[in-house]
């Protein structure tokens, strides 16, 4: 069954924009994509938590992945990628606010360079595309990991900063 073997080597990913960079997530961890709406801020919440919103009767925690990955560029923050509760263990419904959503596409395992990100928390690899790089990130990266990804999607390094 060559078709089944070929299918096993491909993963569907959702490409989205954060600042000037393009990132992707395995589509299997995503429940839905919704327009960004009004958020309710939570006092004393961590910096990466933007607030909560009511999403069809579920209180959904909205996280800013730019804070998690130390991305400084700004953008329109138009969409929310909501994760599947069963696939991502955050203790409730969680979504990431992203600048825009581009496309869903198949990624072949040979197009993913994991060597450049082997020591980086929250980064699966760099997806090589025709004329660009796409950073494949994990939805369950912890805020204290302090992962820093530059806007080009090429380099990732740990950033240990002390707060006063």
Explain the overall architecture:
The chain has 164 residues and is mostly beta strands. The chain has a single domain, classed as OB fold (Dihydrolipoamide Acetyltransferase, E2P). The chain has two helices and 13 strands. The strands form three sheets. A six-stranded mixed beta sheet has the order 8-1-2-11-10-9. Strands 3-6-7-5-4 form a five-stranded mixed beta sheet. A two-stranded antiparallel ribbon has the order 12-13. Strand 12 (147-149) and strand 13 form a beta hairpin. It is globular, with a radius of gyration of 16 Å. The N and C termini lie far apart (60 Å). Mean pLDDT is 80; it is low at 1-7 and 144-164. Residues 10-148 form the CheW-like domain. This is CheW protein. It comes from Halorubrum cibi. Pfam families: CheW.
SSE topology sketch:
Layout (H helix, E strand, L loop, with lengths): L1 H7 L1 E9 L2 E6 L3 E6 L13 E7 L2 E6 L1 H4 L10 E5 L9 E6 L1 E9 L3 E2 L9 E6 L4 E5 L9 E3 L6 E3 L6
Parallel strand pairs: 2-11, 5-7
Antiparallel strand pairs: 1-2, 1-8, 3-6, 4-5, 6-7, 9-10, 10-11, 12-13
